[in-house]
Amino acid sequence: MEYVELPPPSFLRDVVRCFWFLRGNGAGAEAQVVVPDGRSEIVLHLGEPFAALRPDGVARRQSRALAAGQLLGPLMLSPSGEADVMGIRFRTAAGNAVLGGAVRELTGQVAPLAEVAADVEARLIDAAARTPTPAERVAAVSIALARVIRRPPDSLSRAAVRALSQPPPDSTRVDRVARGLGVTLRTLERRLRDATGLSPRALRGVIRFRSAFRRLDGMPPGSWARVAVECGYFDQAHLTRDFRRFAGAPPSRFFQRDLELARAFARGDD
């Protein structure tokens, strides 16, 4: 299958990081793992919906339109036919711009968009279904999306995300980030949870994992200890624990998988 990303128009750049498209016949293809990347999404299935695999191996067909909150662990997806998927990947601090207060309830969840915002689903599906090419869909869906933005991105949360994404170790201490932004730790906690669905410490952990994933991909095991320190882990064992938590396996097993979707979704900073 072919994966493509396109940038948002200028009037959505503070809300949307990118639009992505996945097309092709996935019948018989290996299940793909998606790992936490620190961003919420809306996903539209305009072809055959994927199936989400539960830990016990049972497959459950996904809805036509989905709202994905901040993932806290691996998500296994299996294509079942001719895929035509459009995704709207929000900026980290803009998850609530369209999803509103539901972004907190969606943490660790992928839910039918109709259960979260039925009016949003109708507008986006209609806009996407009327246009055949990715570029045309971006144009049509962007207009529809702009009409359902519930609140502008929170400037404090955006600044906090930037601070938490800085190189470790001391610059990403949550108490230091709060002081640097001139707010109390409690205020930072509340504002960031409202914007992203995650606490500052939890978000820092996901961003750190995302950075480690990108650095380790394709590198030999002998370099993992150095990458662990560069990404802000105490040691390699600390990094391995995070991989078990977020990716479902230690790096030695995780990187043996087909990681096409995981690589695509984790690429790029906010």
What keyword list fits this structure?
270 residues, 2 domains, four-stranded antiparallel β-sheet, 10 strands, Arc Repressor Mutant, subunit A, 12 helices, 42% helix, alpha+beta, six-stranded antiparallel β-sheet, Jelly Rolls, globular
Oligomer: single chain
* Overall geometry: globular
Report low-confidence residues grouped into runs of 5 or more: none
Mean pLDDT: 91
Quick gist of this model?
The protein has 270 residues and is an alpha+beta fold. It is 42% helix and 18% strand.
Description:
- By secondary structure, the chain is an alpha+beta fold.
- Helices cover 42% and strands 18% of the residues.
- It contains twelve helices and ten strands.
- Strand 5 and strand 6 (59-61) form a beta hairpin.
- The longest helix is centred in the middle third of the chain and has 17 residues, at 113-129.
- The radius of gyration is 18 Å and the shape is globular.
- The relative contact order is 0.16.
